[in-house]
Queue: 3 jobs
Job 1
Amino acid sequence: MASAELQGKYQKLAQEYSKLRAQNQVLKKGVVDEQANSAALKEQLKMKDQSLRKLQQEMDSLTFRNLQLAKRVELLQDELALSEPRGKKNKKSGESSSQLSQEQKSVFDEDLQKKIEENERLHIQFFEADEQHKHVEAELRSRLASLETEAAQHQAVVDGLTRKYMETIEKLQNDKARLEVKSQTLEKEAKECRLRTEECQLQLKNLYEDLSSRLEESLSIINEKVPFNDTKYSQYNALNVPVHNRRHQLKMRDITGQALAFVQDLVKGLLNFHTYTEQRIQIFPVDSAIDTISPLNQKFSQYLHENASYVRPLEEGMLHLFESITEDTVTVLETTVKLKTFSEHLTSYICFLRKILPYQLKSLEEECEASLCTSALRARNLELSQDMKKMTAVFEKLQTYIGLLALPSTEPDGLLRTNYSSVLTNVGAALHGFHDVMKDISKHYSQKATIEHELPTATQKLITTNDCILSSVVALTNGAGKIASFFSNNVDYFIASLSYGPKTASGFISPLSAECMLQYKKKAAAYMKALRKPLLESVPYEEALANRRVLLSSTESREGLAQQVQQSLEKISKLEQEKEHWMLEAQLAKIKLEKENQRTADKLKSTSNGQAVGVAQEGAALVTAAGQEDASAKAVPEAVHSTSLIGILTRTSDSEAPDVESREDLIRNHYMARIVELTSQLQLADSKSVHFYAECRALSKRLALAEKSKEALAEEMKVASQNISRLQDELTTTKRSYEDQLSMMSDHLCSMNETLSKQREEIDTLKMSSKGNSKKNKSR
């Protein structure tokens, strides 16, 4: 193996070396070509410089020639100026000379004009040649600079490749030395392993003989003693009750509780999302309070109004699944019957999503067709329509895998056990896909809401609704992320817990066998509970606790009743004193009332009806000041009504004045009834307070007893945990001692085998020596 790895590494390094050599050659060739190009460009630059110098020399010669011609023209002009006055004096004599001078002047003018044109043409040629030379020079200089930079870069690349090549060579040499050392050590280990294998083969042979003898013995015992073997067939073994794993059940219940919380968050987010979407349809693009919305949006709003009947069952199904997982059950896919109910609720919700998807897409198209819809808003709507399609597809995918997981509890051959792990992995992938889709929806909807808020027709209602939808989408995104990470963290435990079941069988064969197993488990638990017979010598612990509580409550109630009686007697004495006080007050009020009635009667005789009414009001005020309760009077021409706690008294004119004694009896009876009512209410309140006080004392004492029992149980629990740890330590020590004994026995057996082999060799040598001696004796 080491040599093969070494060869593979050498082959890879050789391939890399060949690639680097080919790249190095290409780079060298490029550098040589660039150097040749730079040399050619330098030669061209020299030639251009030479031509420029020639042109400058020609320019200098032309300028000198022009200066000469200009001086000659000036001389000619001077001569012409001198010759003109002479010609005026000698017109007659100098006609011939003037003609000659005009001819010469015309010749000079033509010659001068030609020289000027030639000079101008040479100037133009020189300027063009100079500009072209400058342009070519600048271009060649820039090209030379770029070529120099490229050459420097190529040279740096070549240096780096050579350095890397040298480093790889050093690394390969070090790897070669290390691998040689490793190969030597591996050869030594291989030799040691060969020796160990030979020893192990001898031990294996001995163990095989021992185990074969034990197997024959156990088979003979089973055939003679065991009439029926229920572990031979998987159908019968599936009915056996497995060992109860309380830790597994508690963890499954805890995991299901977490999943229930996540599903509740998702359900809440979905309800808010559908409800706020319905509100948005009612106000955008057309507000239903101002104008009628389209029939499509009306139908869409009607369907969205029914979202709770499809979303709420998801939470209920998950709650039923959580309630079905208890500490006493066996939780595997074959026994989780409530998972099928959750799968059916999810299927109904997916049908709802399929039903509203076309209306949702058409509603987004209708928003795009609105007059105020911009191109950016139209692009966001298209992205949201694609996201809604993806969301429905993700839910369909998730429902497919959950339906597959629900098959083992209803159909035996619906899903093979070998496919459980792949289905669970796909469920995790679907949840992560749902999280990604919700992130896209949140991103696109936030952009859409931002654009809509900038529209001139955006109302506060639309802004609030968009914010609510965005918050529900964010909540859905967070919930999807949490449940996806939760499932990914626990998928390994789910896959490992699928093998929880009968030990020697492949698992629960069918849901019917799983149900029978659970029934057998309940019967076994009931039988074990029935075997626990209480001891007759002593009172059971639970009954003793109940009797103690009853005794404590009875003593407390007796003390409470005694206190209540004492308090009642004290209150009765107080009430008697108050009664006497109020009797005296009533007598005083009666005397004052008689006096006032006499005064009013005298005044009524001497005054008119209106004055009588005023006197009656004054008398009522005096009665109130004497200690009676408030009275309100109304002055009416025919009758006066006074309403207070003592009843309704009606005062009329002189002819219909009420009887004084009947009125006093009415007042006295009313006060007595009122006093009795108040005393009864006070006694009832006092009795209730005493009763509550007794109950509070009893509860406080019970709480103290419960705290004491709790502390005692905690101490017992500590002692039990210490015993458990001590037993575990003893178990580990016994295991280690047994393992040490086994290793010592194996070593002893190896030593015995070695001594036996040495003894056999000695016996063989003795036999050979005895044979040689016998042959020598025979020859003698």
Job 2
Amino acid sequence: MVDAALAQVGKNLNEAMRILGDGQMEPDAGTESRRFSRTSIPGPLQGDGQDVTTILHLVHHLIHEEEDEEDGRDKASQPIQNVGEQGHMALLGHSLAAYISVLDRERLRKLTTRILSDTTLWLCRIFRYDNGSAYFHEDDRDGLVKVCRLAINARYEEYTTEGYAVLSSRQPVIYQSASCRPGLGQHLCNQLGLPLSSLCTVPCNTIFGSQHQMDVALLDKLIKEDTDAGKLPLLLIANAGTPEAGHTDKLSRLKELCDQHGIWLHVEGVNLATLALAQVTSAVMGATRSDSMTLTPGRWLGLPAVTAVTLYRHEDPALSLAAGLTSSQPVEKLRALPLWLSLQYLGHNGIVQKIRHAAALSQHLLLKLKSVTCIRTSVEDEQNSPVVLFKFSQESNAGGSGGSVDGLCVGEKEVLDTFNRWMGEQLAQLVPASGVDVVELEDEGTCVRFSPLLTAAVLGTQQEDVDEVVQKLLELVPMMSATMNLRQDFREETHRHAPSLTYIEELSWPGLGAVRYESQAEGADESRRKQEQKKINDALLTKLQELDTDIFFSTDPEFVTEENCIFVGMVTDDVDVSELVDTISTLGRDIEESGRLLENMTERVRKGILEAELQLQKANEEKLLEEGMLRQLPVVGSVLNWFSPVESSIKGRTFNLAAGSLDSTDVTYSTKVQAGRTSLQDIPTLSAKRLSGQRLFRRPGAGSDSMSETSSIGPADESSGVESFTMSPNIHPSMSMSQPETAEHAEAYVRPAGLLGNPEQVEAEEERQPEGQEEDLSGR
């Protein structure tokens, strides 16, 4: 009969996983979401308690709040990861641990002892580690700290009584490979209170063997030197699968060397998972003879919140207790409970199947990559390598150096690393279930890593995902090859357009290159020149992004130091680089000329307004002398004009923007045609020459329609015109000008200010205007 409390624990866990996992909210929870939106700000604890459902909804909102704010999309319907049934068992273990901890002491002791014994026995048998003990820990580095403390207690007999004082007589030395996890040795020294001088990093092979394996001969030499110097070689950290490349040290030779000098051998790495398989390589099999090794079954089997395990061999329980590897507190033994439940749920066959599936994925990808050109792989063992490294190589490119990284200059190697970094990021984004990532290696440079033992169980990677990775590679590699080959052409074409265009040497940009349009304005100070340059390049980038092309144009990325640049992305082999650069130069020049025309037009309008005001003031004075003071009075002037009308000789003025002069409107009134006006529809634009459906920057005969240089250039920005300008408050109709295609024919008309005081004359003047000109004279 199942305990009712245990059944309730399982029920509550299922309900919590349903709310947190599938994101289904109750209908009335929408009103509470507005209250949850302020949970990022800490506040006081509420006086009244809340039910479990409300608290779970709050946790759900906190988990997905940042995603909703950043992406503007609801990602709550997506699970956090592929937990699976075995993951639910691991999560159930944490809930049961809290329940079991309240049992009476004797029952708790028996239960925890059974859990710890079962889990230790199962792990030792699965991973071929006979007569071993287990230490379960949250931090995967904590096991190494404990076994190192155990080694200190074993080698320094008076350490338990004298403490660190006994270490001054013979300083302990800890050896680690140069391929170990970054910061592992420093963390070990900090936890043990040892100086960093106690840490010795052993270089890897440089001539013979893998360049990721520890140099055994050099290690032997270092040990002898430390012994002669009065130091005590204490512990050696070896790798069964380096963190980046997945290579395994020569563990058998290292074990012989450690036995010779009395050194504790500790092994860690992802390749230790293959010990569960029926067939294991001899290199990895050497780990079973080590003094201790750290396993991470949570990552290998896709178990969330499962502790790491350090298996070790030592005959003295008192020293193990002093080192912290064992505990007399039953509650601490409950750390193994989630793993105990998960291992029982999976069974031995299920555990082996997951590890075998991950290893098969690596072999499948390695086989597929052999048929992809320009992709070079790097594995430790062609027949059995859980980790696959691959990178884009120039070996098939024109003028390449056979794919050898050593044959490349510093700039070319950095560009190649940039392209590989971009390729890895694209693959991770396009096929997220694959779990590929980017690693930086000292010799190989930037590579893409596929390590399914660490990701497949968590992400649910299948063979179809590997095939999709290869398919995306087949799409990306030709583009990368074409871009790499055309980078030099782009540089040369940009130099040909100097000084209007400047090529920016940015090796960290994954694309064709970077260019900047240089303003040709003379006499401007540095700050004004930079502002003008930024304005032109921003407008140029907008124009380029609006073009009908597949090429990606971007502004300055965060990692570059140059400013006001336009970055051109990846291109295909049918791109006409000359046409592309010509378009950039032409558009930049059009934008600069449009801006300069607007500035000149503004200055001419300002001067014209001043001149018009002076002439209008003069016309008002002449009108006053001609008509007399009486006609200017409102009532008297109307009576006099009724009995004795006066024909005014004052005419209007037209302002020529191109010439910057005020002219009489007599010609306009006599011909009833605005002189010099050219219809915008009569002016052909460059964009009108392009045929519908054509793509820009394609070479003739390259799989797309050929296009002329002018057809690829979009229309210049014609929005720089000004609709109207008010010259003076004394002028009744505002002076206006139409948006010009050329400045020579843009005109605005000005009325004498004297017409403002006499409504009859205003009407008479309007009646004298020819039809079609009233809109220009009254302002639009």
Job 3
Amino acid sequence: MSSNSGIRIPSRLPLLLTHEGVLLPGSTMRISVDTARNMQLVKTRLLKGTSLKSTIIGVIPNTRDPELDTEDLPSLHSIGTAGLAVQVVGSNWPKPHYTLLITGLCRFRVSQLLKEVPFPLAEVEQLDKLEQYTSPRNTSEAATPEGELGELSQRFYQAAVQLVGMLDMSVPVVAKLRRLLDSLPKETLPDVLASMIHTSNKEKLQVLDAVSLEERFKKTLPLLTRQIEGLKLLQKTRKSRPDDDKRVKLVRAVGKVGKFPGRPFSLDEDGDDDEDGDDNTVLERKVKGANMPEAALRVCLKELKRLKKMPQSMPEYALTRNYLDLMVELPWSKSTTDCLDIHSARVLLDNDHYAMEKLKRRVLEYLAVRQLKSTLKGPILCFVGPPGVGKTSVGRSIARTLGREFHRIALGGVCDQSDIRGHRRTYVGSMPGRIINGLKAVGVNNPVFLLDEVDKLGKSLQGDPAAALLEVLDPEQNHSFTDHYLNVAFDLSQVLFIATANTTATIPPALLDRMEVLQVQGYTQEEKVEIAHRHLIPHQLEQHGLTPHQLQIPQDTTLDIISKYTREAGVRSLERKIGAICRAVAVKVAEAAPRLAAGDSCHMTKAQRVSSDMASPPEMPIVIDHIALKDILGPHIFEMEVSERLTLPGVAIGLAWTPLGGEIMFVEASRMEGEGQLTLTGQLGDVMKESAHLAISWLRSNAKTYQLTNLVGGLDPLEGTDIHLHFPAGAVTKDGPSAGVTMVTVLASLFSGRLVRSDVAMTGEITLRGLVLPVGGIKDKVLAAHRAGLKRVIIPKRNEKDLEEIPANVRLELDFVGASNLDEVLNAAFDGGFPGISNPVTLPQITSKL
């Protein structure tokens, strides 16, 4: 490798096939490597090679569509570029690949393909001289080509100088290009400039194939001239522009001319390009027209000033541009006008939802106050109730009533505070929180936001989203809510926030204190029947393509579905059962349709006609009675097992509250000879275990009064006796104090040998002195007793005020006993009262107090 003969590349080169572009000598190019052969080449030659020679590879342009690439080696282009791999970067996302930075050295021709696997290896012939680097002073002293080649070289150099002179010399890349024109040998300029100006891959391939220097000048000179003509035309049409703005436009125009070679420019097209091309000017106009607060406008103008100074290749350019786009799209001053017609709002709410009077009244109150005070802040409401009672749909109806936009944010399982407040822009992949994203989606600053399942928020190392919601849901703070991504205050005071939850037990107290809680209780059977015939059945008929002339479900059948196939506080299971009926009827209707077509019987054989008569189409409408209901839905899922369960002493019915609504709960007790131990089963919590010990202690202390005996007739119920207390549905965890009166009744029944009434249920907390204390969830518990067909409900006397929330028809069908002590509980739970109680209160006297 002497300087006289020039530098020689290896005679055998591994070949890298690329479809991303054409590498020319003297240029640098990034190439993504993800095919099997290319990956093997990188691993074997570039990563494991130790000599400089191992980093020289041959780059062959692959003209075949990469999506059609197969395991077969495509036909190789005869001429390629020997390149030096100066950088290798690997990554596993989105799939394993390498990125190579390769500098082109010289052309070569493939003489013979030596092997194809694991990567192509070929015998090559070097086509260009590869001289050692010489200083600009020595270059100027080099011999200048003569004749036609010298003339082409001089014309090309002059054109290159003219092109660079038309660009902004203050840009570092342009200044570097100008210096290269003076330092590089003229025979290398065609390859260098062809790789820098915007040309198609086909044009670059033609330059690569031009082996002789004269042909290379002839191929490249028209490309250079085309760029100059395009710039001249753009300069002519933009003389009225400021010089700085003009230079930016001219640099962008070079790429546009190169992408569409040979296509003439028109003034109209150039005008459109001016409107869309000057993004910064358009963005600045949008920022000033967004009517944002002074503080936000000041931040946006500062970011816009930084944006103008950034080159588009900088990663921060895209981040800043996305930030400004979001600030422009946010509804700083856009809002909808509320519909304040109370009469129309009441009609709309009544049409959308049956019952739910408390929720409707609260919405109408808000409308009335808005009529009197237009600057009223949006309330923070929280609907708490079992699933399926319509909390989410009520929120949607409220938005429709007010004429506002509606946006739902699901918070179930969210455990990162950034979901609420957003990420800081210093992080990679940062984005605003769900609140700001929701405002951007609806396009107004006074929508109805539904924060669904706020009781199911999580907590993790990324913060507590419930704590982040404190600022959002506080009327005294949310007028200046600051998202981490925006880093400027946004006014949320006009947003109507509605949260939904199944229980308030899991909501942090500080968050619960900021919301106005409205309880949404379960429905009675009568309400469910009404809801089914007003909303569910018409909706399911529409969903299944049926009409009321094809299917009818009487109210008695609907009541059977509610009582024997569903047992829930809401109506979701009821809607699913109605959907199952519609599907079954749809099959009958679809089967009957072909047989009802005119003229079909003319082409039937005798056997087919007899078969058709036997399977005649059903008469319309199809009415679902209890027989058809059993055929479609199967045997009854819920039977009235109450009377069968209470056939022995030691069994009573308690009432429990769950997030899914109220439930009845059977409590069973048995005794056997032993050492006076108490066994509790059924996955009971600590509070229930303590209630069981309270019940035992109270009965032992009053055993003589109530004539309670043990197995051998003694007055101590636990002497020589073991007690086992069980709560069925053992897989479900149970806790709470409200089962205290039920435990006392069960044990009193066991020790006295008397049966508890089979139509009575009870709830209440007890004390060691025999007092009955109030508990929660009375409405849900009473509705559960009503669903189960019970007739008497024993509640704490201090809970009598909660009976006002229960529908009047349910109160008429149930007898309520308000008990202040355990004597009254036992007297009401047994037929004829309980022995040992002086002056027993009779049922008429109890009910008359209510």
